[in-house]
Amino acid sequence: MNPGVLVKYKDFLPVTPGTPLFSLGEGDTPLVRCNRLETEIGCRELYLKLEGCNPTGSFKDRGMVVAVAKALESGSKAIMCASTGNTSSSAAAYAAYCGLTAIIIVPKNNIAPGKLAQAIVYGAKIIALKGNFDQALSIVLNLTKKHPVTLANSVNPHRIEGQKTAAFEIIDTLGQAPDYLFIPVGNAGNITAYWKGFEEYYQLGRAKNKPAMMGFQAEGAAPIVRGHVIDDPKTIASAIRIGNPASWQKATAARDESGGVIDMVTDDEIMAAHRLMATKTGVFGEPASAASLAGLIKLSRKGMDFSKKRVVCVITGTGLKDTDAVLKTAEPFLEAPANSAAVEKALGWG
Ligand code: AN7
């Protein structure tokens, strides 16, 4: 049985005798080898880390369990976050488990329907902001300074601590770090957390190597790549529609210390990778999560040689959160009346 992130990795986390150890079953996510994509892309080994298998369907649960445990330990009664959707789903679920109030601020009409449904069903106090994520985060940073509520965004270092456990799991499974880690970049907390995890295991001698960190933003929301804040970020991948990432400097440090890159992919490249991942590996990620694979495909097409490399792409969230992204552009499919002959006819069998 998976004991959860707090118990399994407590020696590596800010756990004290006063920290409540609980779990919704986060962590221990699959690392799936993808032979068909290896052939197509020309990698020696390609794995997808399926973070959509966490309890609320994204990687956020790893950090949220630590942030909420520390909030409880400090006597807090409420947590608050800005979110493009997944952080708020996770905050709402862990708050519900522990009996805390979750207050979430999300961009109005700009989060995937599954994520909004999660916040509603878990009983969060929701504010739909007439503004974008960056504005929501700046309000949350302001209000959590003024009021007795705990900040649950990844500016809270406990979030990063929990999220680094995904890097530990990759090393625990492979026996070493991959050569490359491809990862979507939005607010840049996750790339920061993975790098911290790889670095810590390396220092402890649990891995002999560290990966190059390959972060990918969406082209219309690529402040780090462009070197300036984007006031009105745009992308179909709503989870990473972020123009002023909170962990900007830490992400560029991870890039530089690891010898990696932070680059961008277009919405078309993201959606092509999203479809390829589903049709060639049976993995349904949400659009933002496919930015990692889109990045790998982009670099391999540009001539980068992965034929001797072990590559991990982080698939950060499940596609079931954002079925609109598929259904709105779906090709027409077969329909038939309810009898065998009609179905045979529709299939061209007679
Ligand atoms: C599926 O939920 O920022 O670079 O508010 O949901 O650590 O921000 C989500 C981000 C990638 C980017 N993939 O990670 C939020 C939020 C998915 C995400 C990212 C997000 P960060």
Write structural notes for this entry.
- This protein has 350 residues and is α/β, with parallel strands linked by helices.
- It is 41% helix and 15% strand.
- It is built from 15 helices and 10 strands.
- Helix 5 (113-121) links the parallel strand 4 and strand 5.
- Helix 3 (60-73) packs across helix 4.
- The model has no long low-confidence stretch (mean pLDDT 98).
- The structure holds ligand AN7.
- Ligand AN7 binds next to helix 4 and helix 9.
- Ligand AN7 binds at residues 58, 83-87, 154, 184-190, 239-240, 286, 288-289, 316-317.
Give the names of the bound compounds: ligand AN7
Give me the count of strands.
10
Mean pLDDT score: 98
| Rg from Cα | 20 Å
User: Major sheet: size, sense and barrel closure?
Assistant: 6 strands, mixed
Structural class: alpha/beta
Strand order of the largest sheet: 1-2-10-7-8-9
* Percentage of β-strand residues: 5-15%
Distance between the termini: 50 Å
List segments where confidence is low: pLDDT < 50 over at least 5 consecutive residues: none
Helix segment tally: 15
In oligomeric terms, what are we looking at?
Answer: single chain
H/E element order: HEHEHEHEHEHEHHEHEHHEHHEHH
Proportion in helices: 40-55%
Give the overall shape, derived from the CA principal axes.
Answer: globular
